[in-house]
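User: Please predict the structure of the protein below. I'd like the answer in structure-token form so I can feed it into my own downstream comparison script.

Assistant: Understood. Taking the following sequence of 192 residues as input:
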Amino acid sequence: MAAANESTSVPALDALEAGLKPLWDRAQAGDEKAYRAALGLMSRRLRGYFGRRLVALPDEVEDLVQETLLALHLQRDTYDAALPVSAWMHAIARHKLVDLWRRRGRREALHEPLDELDESRHPLVPDEQPARRDLQQLLQTLPQAQQQAIVLTKVEGLSVAEASQRTGVSESALKVQVHRGLKRLAGLVRSH
């Protein structure tokens, strides 16, 4: 059974790469239309990727998709054209998933297989200092409540309950602020 899953995942990755690589190359050269199309392909792939891994946490899927798209945008200058775009995207997605598990205290989940790619195909994620600076600039464009909700839950890693206690905002309102803020950041990223 595992062999069947492996054989179907490799062609799927090859097909993804075949569609994504030319778009991403044009996007890296400044083609906005290709950039939007590449983000669309990446979004669909990431929703499936996270959806399969977060069956018990479906509310986290869209937030992780948006976080990953934001990270891809902020780290686009780290992409090595000699590597598959899908491997680079999956490496960043995998880091975002691990960050989620850490925030949620789910240590046992860190030992589960995280994606179909062999570790040797994952590029290293470089130092994130320029990305942090860009993230700070993007966060400053958000309303204060959204900015604070994202910083507490996504940057500092507090649970929604902890962030709610710290801010005095209800958990449901905090979740809405995070979701709206991430959506707004994704829109800003797509427009650049």
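That's the full token string. Residues 172 and 183 are 16 Å apart (CA to CA).
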